[in-house]
Write a structure and sequence with these properties.
Blueprint (H helix, E strand, L loop, with lengths): L6 E2 L1 H6 L8 E4 L3 H6 L2 E2 L3 E3 L5 H7 L4 E5 L5 H12 L3 E5 L2 H7 L5 E2 L13 E5 L5 H13 L4 E5 L4 H8 L2 E2 L15 H8 L5 H14 L9 H14 L3 H28 L19
Parallel strand pairs: 1-6, 2-4, 2-5, 5-6, 8-9, 8-10
Antiparallel strand pairs: 3-7
Length: 284
Amino acid sequence: MDTASHSISPDQFAALSARPNSPRVIDVRRTQAFEASGRILPRALRCAPEEVERLASTSGAGDAIVYCVHGHEVSMQAAAQLRAAGWNARYLSGGIEAQLGAGLPSIRKRPDFGVTGGQASRWITRARPKIDRIACPWLVRRFIDPKAEFFYVPTTQVFAEAERLAATAYDIPGAPVSHQGELCSFDVLLNGFDLQVPALDRLARIVRGADTDRLALAPQSAGLLAFSLGLSRLHADDQAMLEAAMPLYDALYAWCESEATAVLQGLPAETHNWSPDALPKAAR
C-alpha cells in the first residue's frame, strides 16, 4: 500500500499545469465511473485499471500522476504498478472528486472534438498561422490533450481535409471552433471545455487583443502580435513555427500566472525597475 510520500495534493497537481515537462496524467477510474462522468482532469489520458500493467511495460517510463474517483485503492495500486516498472508515479490525494470539490481546474469531455481522454485528438486550420492558430494548439497541448495533432492546410482544403483526417476544424468561419462575436477562437476553446483558470483568462484577453486588432485590450497584445509576425517571417514551415512559438506562450502564461497570483494575494505586480541612476557613481 502506498504511503503519503507517493501522493500529491490537488493544489500541488494544479500548480503543475501548463509546464512543458509536466508529468503524464493518467485517469484510472473504473470504466463505469469514467463513463458516467462528464469531466476529466487537464492533460489526462485514459487507462482502465486492468490495462495499467500493460501500459507500464509498453510505454517508456517517466513521471506520472494517476487519479481515480476518491484517491483510494484504484489509483494507489496503479501508481504502485507503475513504480514497480521504473516510473516515478504518484496518485492524486482525494482523486478527481477532491479536485472538483476544491474548484480546481478540470475540463469537460468533448467527444465532438475527439477529446474524451482516449486516443489523441486531431485539429486542422488554415496554413501560415498567426495568433489564434498558434495559441489554440498551445492551449490544447498544455491543458487538454498533450498528444494532440495539428494540421495546417490551404484555406480551401480545411473542411475536406478535416473530414478525411477525422480532425476538428478551428479558426475558420463555419468551423466548430471559431470567432463568436467579440470572442476569438482561443476564448471559444476555453468556454467549450469549461476550463476556468485565472491566468488563462488573463492570457485570453491578450490573445483576443492581438488576434482581433484591438491592441488596447491589453498592453501585451501588441508585443504578442509582433512576435507572431516575426515568427512567420522566420519559419516557412508551419509545424516548425508552432514548435518555435510554444516556449513563447509558455513564458507568457507563466507571467500571467504570476500576475494572477499577485492579484489574489493583494501583492504588487513584478516589474523591471532597475536603474543605473540608483547605483553609486563608482559602480556605474
